[in-house]
Write a structure and sequence with these properties.
The complex is a heterodimer of chains A (110) and B (115). Chain A is mostly beta strands and 110 residues long. Helices cover 0% and strands 56% of the residues of chain A. Chain A is built from no helices and 11 strands. In chain A, strands 2, 4, 5, 9, 10 and 11 form a 6-stranded mixed β-sheet that branches. A 5-stranded antiparallel β-sheet of chain A has the order 1-3-8-7-6, with no helix packed on it. Chain A is globular and about 40 Å long. The relative contact order of chain A is 0.34. Chain B is mainly β and 115 residues long. Chain B has no helices and 13 strands. In chain B, the strands form 3 sheets. In chain B, strands 2, 4, 5, 6, 9, 12 and 13 form a 7-stranded mixed β-sheet that branches. The termini of chain B are far apart. The chains are: A mainly beta (110), B mainly beta (115). At the A-B interface, strand 5, strand 9 and strand 10 of A face strand 4, strand 5 and strand 12 of B.
Chain lengths: 110, 115
């Protein structure tokens, strides 16, 4: 079957680091995206990995291991505004079809 | 550069009715996709349009249909609404050329409630 698994919820303190893991098993793989979604808003693009390794973009980094079917999103120096759902999504074909995980709700506390 | 816009923002319909949701793609994008997002879940792929043709479809029944227009705007139509159709419907646009896929840019969605 096809699965994309990520934890349901994570809580961390302002200024801390949080790592959101994502494991996937899909029929096709053309890359992996991470999106951020605040309640009632559209998902917004954070990162894209197609090759193994780490991609760093400011406070956010994303890692991919294709052989292990594994990715993580690392959020550093957490801010209150980072409280949101983080969606792991696999690009399953060459036309842009995304298969999403259920999302990880990150709660940042003072 | 204008983003992806969807209308209406919210909609309440009765079971059995039909609904049309609209989307204007981000300028320069040639592909539009529709996703259904139930509360607490990730978005689920409904279908995708490229050059006014359906280019892929998820696990949704035929009563979900769509159109893409020459100006890359799009409609999602749902017939014979069921209670389980209550969800956030997201439109996303992107550019596909030469095997390259730009990231999907999502609209703010239409919240559909079926009573």
């Amino acid at each position: 079957g096809q699965n994309i698994d990520q934890p349901t919820e994570m809580t961390a303190t302002e200024g801390a680091i949080v790592q959101i893991n994502c494991t996937y098993q899909t029929s096709g793989f053309n890359g992996l995206f991470w999106y951020q979604q605040h309640a009632g808003e559209a998902p917004t693009f954070l990162s894209y990995n197609v090759l193994d390794g780490l991609e760093e973009k400011g406070r956010f980094s994303s890692f991919l291991s294709r052989s292990k079917g594994y990715s993580y999103l690392l959020l550093k120096e957490l801010q209150m505004k980072d409280s949101a759902s983080y969606l792991c999504a696999v690009l399953t074909d060459s036309w842009g079809k995304l298969q999403f995980g259920a999302g990880t709700q990150v709660v940042v506390t003072p | 550069e204008t983003g992806v816009t969807q209308s209406p923002t919210h909609l309440i319909k009765t079971r059995g009715q039909q609904v049309t949701l609209r989307c204007s793609s981000q300028s320069g994008h040639n592909t539009v996709s529709w996703y259904q997002q139930a509360l607490g879940q990730g978005p689920q792929f409904i279908f995708q349009y490229y050059r006014e043709e359906e280019n892929g479809r998820g696990n949704f029944p035929p009563r979900f249909s769509g159109l893409q227009f020459p100006n890359y705007s799009s409609e999602l139509n749902v017939n014979a609404l069921e209670l389980d159709d209550s969800a956030l419907y997201l439109c996303a646009s992107s550019t596909v050329y030469g095997g390259y896929n730009s990231p999907l840019h999502f609209g703010n969605g239409t919240r559909l409630t079926v009573t």
